[in-house]
Protein: Recombination protein RecR
Organism: Enterococcus ureilyticus
Amino acid sequence: MHYPEPIAKLVESYMKLPGIGQKTAVRLAFYTLDMKEEDVNAFAKALISVKRDLHFCSICGNITEEDPCEICQDTTRDRSIILVVEEPKDVMAMEKMREYHGLYHVLHGVLSPMEGTGPEDINIASLIQRLHDDEVKEVIIATNATTEGEATAMYLSRLIKPAGIIVTRLAHGLSVGSDIEYADEVTLLKAVEGRREL
Amino acid sequence: MHYPEPIAKLVESYMKLPGIGQKTAVRLAFYTLDMKEEDVNAFAKALISVKRDLHFCSICGNITEEDPCEICQDTTRDRSIILVVEEPKDVMAMEKMREYHGLYHVLHGVLSPMEGTGPEDINIASLIQRLHDDEVKEVIIATNATTEGEATAMYLSRLIKPAGIIVTRLAHGLSVGSDIEYADEVTLLKAVEGRREL
């Protein structure tokens, strides 16, 4: 005898999540069995809702319930700046800061020759389309500080600058609250290169 | 702006699982967003099915889709032995061994004065009921080797022995393939106490 069919199926589903192997999946499945019925139903509903009710904004590519998204629709935001990020969660991280009031553009990936991701595979064409609008004065590139993120930033900068738009990149350096002692060399180098007069 | 409502709800659900904090829940929610729609639907269905289609066997307390469970219904099994475990997953672990052909009884817990779990809170009454059947000759107590598991084993043994039924306990000792060097003292003590002539 193996696990009863419903448990086996749930184990299989849990194992599709990142970082969850068979043992953890079995533990989670049995835990689910002991959960309150309403909690399990809410969980199932939330799973379906995430796929059914969320779409990508046709302007900026961010995830949203309505199209265009709240931010693109918001007339109080500064339409002269577009901040370019890799993923929707980066938009949410930026919004948590509460100090950026421009617009966003989500690439949904980065250029990666290793993985065969070229400019046509990510959301670049629609960004260029948006720049034809005279309002845009600055593009802030906020891709991650990885090799692919840097290469994408460089690619976009070369593509956009000729149009007379200012292209900037987020500052890299030491995290606030971090110890120099524990910083890696690349971060330290960026911190020294980007030093500012007091 | 916080996360869109559907994501926030899914994060909340993931956080109800053991060992999953907010950061992991957010990561899983965004991962879910990128999963294939059919996989997410299967996941939701499996969650609901686990609560809806599984019940406890009215005889042994094991989880089952039909009542009585497959094992209790199986006439080829030895009805003179009942193996008592704490949880349904212990039954599945035993069945994996493929060498035990008797019946089971699932307690759904252990006696724990610390947590206020007394004999009436776990599935003991129905075990005693089953013992009135003349067929039962031996009860193997396979509760875990924890303080509560040992106490429960002792309690059951005192309750059952007067009825003239043999009560046994699984052997404790070194795991197969383990090093004596790394075994804890209690396990070593059990291994010495339980030594057998070669």
Summary: Residues 162 and 188 of chain A are 32 Å apart (CA to CA). Chain A has a mean pLDDT of 91. The beta strands of chain A are 55-56, 63-64, 81-85, 103-106, 138-141, 166-169. Chain A has two domains: 5-53, 76-169.
